[in-house]
Amino acid sequence: MTAISMRVLRVLALCGLIGVTACSATYQNHGYVPPENDLENLIVGVDTRATVDDLIGPPSVSGMVGDGDYYYVRSRKRTYMMLRPQVIEREVLAISFNDDDTIANIERFGLEDGQIVPLSRRVTDSSVVKNGFLRQVLSNIGALNPEQLFGE
Fold first, then answer.
1. Which of 9, 38, 43, 125 is the most exposed place for a label (fewest CB within 10 A)?
2. pLDDT surpassing 60 at residue 35
């Protein structure tokens, strides 16, 4: 083989390697859920919110009220080429509390337990949709007040 054909072969091999690595999936981890052995130290009905904060730490998400329940959320997304990222794993740990701040319940939920929540989108109607730019400019001519232009 000549030197030129070896270069062409190397360039083709490099292009093939770049093409194969570009098509591989990338994964993104987000959030934190405490491991099961840390949760074994919590006793329902005995331990308090302060104990949970000390043993496993405060969550990044809590209930709507300031003293609401604790939610630990962890998710894993896979992105493949230019396609939309897909959630392949999600885990939610919910710790609910009684009125006296003792633990009422500890629950785990996975992606298979989830439900699709329809989001409503509210859009404010614009009053200038039917008026073109020139019509908007010309309609403001009668609304000018000379006192505002030249001061007092």
1. 125
2. yes
Give the residue carrying structure tokens 């609910």. Answer: 96
User: What does pLDDT average to over the chain?
Assistant: 80
pTM of the model: 0.60
pLDDT of residue 77: 92
Residues 6+ apart with CB under 8 A from 45: 98, 102, 103, 104
Q: Give residue 2's Cα distance to chain centre.
A: 55
- Structural domain total, the chain: 1
The CA-based dihedral angle spanning residues 133, 134, 138, 140, taken in that order and rounded to the nearest 10 degrees? 10
Q: Is residue 13 part of a domain?
A: no
Residue 132 domain-assigned (yes or no): no
Residue 29 lies in a domain: yes
AA identity, residue 86: Q
Domain ranges, residue 46: 22-114
Residue 127 lies in a domain: no
Q: Are strands 70-79 and 103-110 parallel, antiparallel or unpaired?
A: unpaired
